Amino acid sequence: MSKAAKKKSSKKRSGSEAAQFDQKTIQEFKEAFGIMDQNKDGIIDKSDLKDLYASMGQIAPDSQIDAMIKEASGPINFTVFLTLFGERLTGTDPEATIIGAFAMFDKKDCGKIKEDDLIKILQNKRGEPLDEDEVKAMYKGKPPIEGGEVDYKAFAHLITTGAQDELASA
């Protein structure tokens, strides 16, 4: 097989992206899937995503929800969910992943979210919420908050590297 043919064949969707995860990670994805599958029917659909956003105090436009659903080749069961994440996370910078998650709450698309929204996100009762002590510990790390808004790109950098000083020189 030629080098070009090998390269081309490696880009095909194999469905084996999920094989890259260890059991602990798969369990974490199961928990996340369970949170997203609001009606507990084993399929994440438009209604589930709308309910998930609503539970976080957000209203997602239908176009955004439809775009998410279209990323899957069919109904989003756990296997499809895991495959989608496998495709997304292959070669993805964890910092970029965190930024993408926070960007969902950036209503103004300005790189910042309200501090109150950050606390709501971190203390959301779905998933693994932070308790008061964990939130206090987060503040000891001096998150980039100014005027009641969090620079979530800088915060993601702080989370992934622990280095706030590097931001000033970047």
In short:
The chain has 170 residues and is mostly helical.
Structure description:
This protein is 56% helix and 5% strand. It has ten helices and three strands, in the order H-H-H-H-H-H-E-H-H-E-E-H-H. A hairpin with a 2-residue loop joins strand 2 and strand 3 (149-151). The chain folds into two domains: 21-89, EF-hand (Recoverin, domain 1, Orthogonal Bundle); 94-169, EF-hand (Recoverin, domain 1). Helix 6 runs antiparallel to helix 9 (152-161). Residues 24-59, 93-128 form the EF-hand domain. Residues 1-13 have a biased composition (Basic residues).
The DSSP helix count reads 10
Tertiary shape: globular
Q: Round the Cα radius of gyration to an integer and report it.
A: 18 Å
At the first level of CATH, the class of the largest domain is Mainly Alpha
Give the helix proportion (percent range). Answer: 55-70%
CATH topology of the largest domain: Recoverin, domain 1
Main sheet overview? 3 strands, antiparallel
Beta-strand residue percentage: under 5%
Number of strands: 3
What's the structural domain tally? 2
* CA(first)-CA(last) distance: 44 Å
CATH architecture descriptor name of the largest domain: Orthogonal Bundle
Mean pLDDT: 77
Order of helices and strands: HHHHHHEHHEEHH
Structural class, from secondary structure content?
mainly alpha
Q: What are the low-pLDDT stretches, counting only 5+ consecutive residues below 50?
A: 1-16, 165-170
